[in-house]
Amino acid sequence: MDFCNKVVVITGASSGIGASTAKQFAREWAKVVLVGRNESALKEVATECENAKGIKPLIVKAELSNDDEVKNIVSKTIEAFGGIDVLVNNAGFGCKASIHDGIEPFDRIMATNIRAVYLLTSLFTPYLVKSKGNIVNVSSVAAFRPIKDVDFLPYCISKAALDQFTRCLAVELSKDGVRVNSVNPGATRTPFVQVAGFNKEQAEELYKIRDKVMPLGKVAESEDIADMIVYLASSRARSITGALHVIDNGEILV
Ligand SMILES: NC(=O)c1ccc[n+]([C@@H]2O[C@H](COP(=O)([O-])OP(=O)(O)OC[C@H]3O[C@@H](n4cnc5c(N)ncnc54)[C@H](OP(=O)(O)O)[C@@H]3O)[C@@H](O)[C@H]2O)c1
User: Fold this and answer.
1) Is 37 exposed, middle or buried (0-12, 13-18, 19+ CB in 10 A)?
2) Which residue has its alpha carbon closest to ligand 1 atom 42?
């Protein structure tokens, strides 16, 4: 896989799956654009990316629920690199919330997990059409079924919406030669669980339980998800569009 001279924008590149994905693209000679909020974490990832092949990444600090900051990602990318070849819509979060918690968690989750994805993608679309590039969305197995034992209603809805976005957009952009795909991870070892409101001990306990119930006896690592993202973005996946790729150690089978 060769991403030499390809511009790859990754949201949520400061942590977990996004950070692993950025490093993997950098190892494949890509010019990476790292988007996130935590500047010091972004700088650490940027250093690792630069150490791979000597190509300096662009860092764009952005709160994705803010439209102006989303617009700034596009202008900074075009200013620095003149275009885009791959957009990885990875940033997202979950939080414990049920229908009893009212509309606030729903609005908060949708603003980042789906609205920002829609806005950023729409702004990059003319450039992706020009480059005949492609998009990879990071969804979840939570798009297919409720999460057991935890109230995660708005998150599950946001990822189901993201999957339909992937499929509809794949049809819409197929005439322009732009592919759109998704990866749908199951439990993956990242700070996600703690960001969602579990403390360190609870997170470890959750992984221990998951390690036991998963058919393959383990949760995924962020590199496992990054592998699939990089593959889908590459020309090896030239016949794949509108497809959702489950990476879950068999989680949804049991
Ligand atoms: N880990 C899992 O078990 C799992 C399973 C299925 C799907 N996923 C999906 O995988 C994706 C990546 O999650 P992860 O596991 O890597 O979690 P993570 O380590 O918590 O990373 C989430 C990333 O998203 C960024 N982000 C979140 N909200 C943002 C906002 N409003 N504006 C800008 N950036 C924002 C964070 O930026 P800062 O840290 O800089 O604030 C961080 O870089 C998410 O879409 C998640 O839903 C994860």
Assistant:
1) middle
2) 12
Q: Tens digit of pLDDT for each residue in 220-252?
A: 999 999 999 999 999 999 999 999 999 999 999
**Predicted TM-score (pTM) of this structure:** 0.98
CA 142 – ligand 1 centroid, Å:
14
The answer to whether the CB of 58 falls within 8 A of the CB of 33 is yes
Going from the C-alpha of 16 to that of each of 21, 80, 128, 177, 187, the distances in angstroms are 9, 25, 26, 30, 12
Q: Is the CB of 83 under 6 A from ligand 1?
A: no
CA 152 to ligand 1 center in whole angstroms: 15
- Condensed to tens digits (0 to 9), the pLDDT of residues 71-120 reads 999 999 999 999 999 999 999 999 999 999 999 999 999 999 999 999 99
* CA 3/CA 85 separation, integer angstroms: 9
Burial 102-121 (b: 16+ CB within 10 A, else e): eeebbeebbbbbbbbbebbb
Q: Which residue has the tokens 């250093």?
A: 47
pLDDT (mean) for 167-180:
98
**Domains with residue ranges and CATH for the chain:** 7-189+221-240 (3.40.50.720)
Query: Is the minimum distance from the CB of 90 to ligand 1 under 6 angstroms?
Result: yes
Pocket lining: 104 vs ligand 1, CB cutoff 6 Å? no
Cβ atoms < 10 Å from Cβ of 24: 25
Q: Is 231 a catalytic residue?
A: no
